[in-house]
Amino acid sequence: MDKPRVVIIVQSKRNARVIREQLNDLLGGFICFDSLSYEEGIDSIVCADLVLVSSLVIAGQIAKYLMPGTDILVIRRTIKRESWDKLMTLPLRTKALLVNGDQEVTIETVALLYELGIKHLELIPYYPGLDPIRDVNIAVTPNEERCVPPNIERVINIGDRVVDSTTIFDILNKFDLLNKKTSEIVLSHIARIIPRSPGLSESLSLIAETKQHLGFLLDVVHEGVIAFNEEDKITLYNRLAEQIFQESAWRVMGTPLDELLSHKSLKHISTAKEIKDEVYPINGNSLVVNKYSLINKGVYSGGVITFKECNEIERLELKFRQDIKVKGHISKYVFNDIIGKSKGLSNTVTMAKRFAKSDSVILIEGESGTGKELFAHAIHNASLRKDKPFVAFNCASLTDSLIESELFGYSDGAFTGAKKGGKPGLFELAHKGTIFLDEIGDISFNTQARLLRVIQEKEVIRVGGTDVIPVDIRIIAATNQNLHELVGKGKFRRDLFYRLNILPIKIPPLRERKVDIPYLVEFFFRKKGIKEDISQELMEILQQYNWPGNVRELENCIDYLINIHSHNITRDDLPPYISEAIKPGLADRGEYPEEFRQLDVPKESVFILRVLKEAQELQKKIGRRTIGDRLKKYGFYLTEQEIRGRLKKLQAQGYIEVNKGRAGTKISAAGEDLIKTHS
């Protein structure tokens, strides 16, 4: 029985030969294949059982050469699976010439590749007769390397397009040759090609789109990323990796990992199974490297390496720490907010402005209410750190554990109730900025030692943690105590005192700069939005009083006057405690009687004892808020936190006894004697 005769008619002689050889290799045992081309010319009638053409255009042109009733089939072509794999390894957004022998076939091939899901490449048609394209270094060609322009650096030959399985099935069906043997031939062919069936094309497009999406994701991460397969050949290489290694993705994709990491300093990266946060020098930059191996069901499947520049890590850390400014860690005041024109205050402000330009530790000394925190804010805002965080912390009356957890932070699980994941301390949050430590004289020896380490080493360790965290901070400390005396009494570390006392500032009390009182009074009225003329008599009285609570007490006095006055404010409107203090002339003789200056405890503590004694005699319990209210009549303005600190010290000195439950706080015999001595 004679074999069916199939004639292939296409444009070029070369394509005619290639298609005939492919079909002969597959179905030559069942069908006789011949080929013709327009390039060689067709000059006789074609006798065939079936004619295969490369396009509908050629089908129309050859109709006059065919016997009536001859069937015509348009050949569908595709590419080999290995060729598709080559193209899929090219990086996202790669520009490449698609080079073929003529315009029509070139455009057909571009369309075919896009249909098969090669959508991550920008394919530019190129064929003989066109001018070279200068900004493209890669060419893709179906066995037409002779047509590739000379400026191309890399050529990817995807081989001749192959006849698609759908065309093979159509030919076999035409001649009723579809049987077990021919089916095996077709299935073997399908395994080597990318079939153009609609369902498969959709799957291939999905694969390509997934790869494209992954490429976009990798390009937006702030790390260089290199992925590699089980043969340690590079399969992914993002844009930042290009910048780090100064090598284009298309040059390294598919190449062995050790070629990219050939420098001796990088050899360990290619050979190590895993790397955790190690620093390597690459092209003049220090990078933190991590490497992870992928093990799938016990089988090595390649891995991924990430590279992050150290300065990028520092930038992110700084951004994180600066974000706390949104939470309120910002400086509020400048030197213009310090009211007064006295010589003492002016000299202090001048010195503070000079110290602001330095990065050394500043120690601010001054009585309660003199404006130590105001000065700290102003110093920060006049420094080079003004755009960075300003963190304030009052050390008074807090336990060691609370002070340390606030200042140094704590790690995950450091103690019962610790926040999951830990918490950064104020030193960390103040990174690149300023931390203001008020009432520094109240911290314990243990906390003093940890603070000394921060000043000396510029690093902290969280409570319960082991990691050393570097911090770049400027410390401003403040106290209303005489630290030098505390050092002499063994209550404050000498080495810490010398570390803190590098740039000392002493704020004069209000009694030493009474010339500033009129300016302050005017400011406080204006702050409340009230225009009020104070009589000369009243102003003189305000200047006679010695203001043991300093500027804070004066502000409270003005607030009192604003709230109780009707129209004209007179001396009769003053708070009773001020009027009483002025009558016996205490204001003219100094701040307090001489005996208070010789006390081993702060003078306000004696008055706290008096308040406690009054409550004790009335058999009433009394809280810190009530104590504060009672102290005002003696001219003291202390916060509840400050009162807590004074109570803690009185207990330590044996002047009071603090009991749990109903017993509450009681004055000891020593406390009774102290009150009697200074009554």
From TrEMBL:
- Keyword Transcription regulation included in the entry's annotation: yes
Q: Please tell me whether the keyword Protease is annotated for this protein.
A: no
Residue ranges of domain Sigma-54 factor interaction in the record: 338-563
Query: Which GO biological process entries does UniProt record here?
Result: regulation of DNA-templated transcription
Q: Which InterPro entries match?
A: AAA+_ATPase (IPR003593), AAA_lid_NorR (IPR058031), P-loop_NTPase (IPR027417), PAS-like_dom_sf (IPR035965), RNase_R_HTH_12 (IPR013668), Sigma_54_int (IPR002078), Sigma_54_int_dom_ATP-bd_1 (IPR025662), Sigma_54_int_dom_ATP-bd_2 (IPR025943)
Keywords annotated in UniProt? ATP-binding, DNA-binding, Nucleotide-binding, Transcription, Transcription regulation
What protein am I looking at?
Answer: Sigma-54 factor interaction domain-containing protein
This protein's species is: Formimonas warabiya
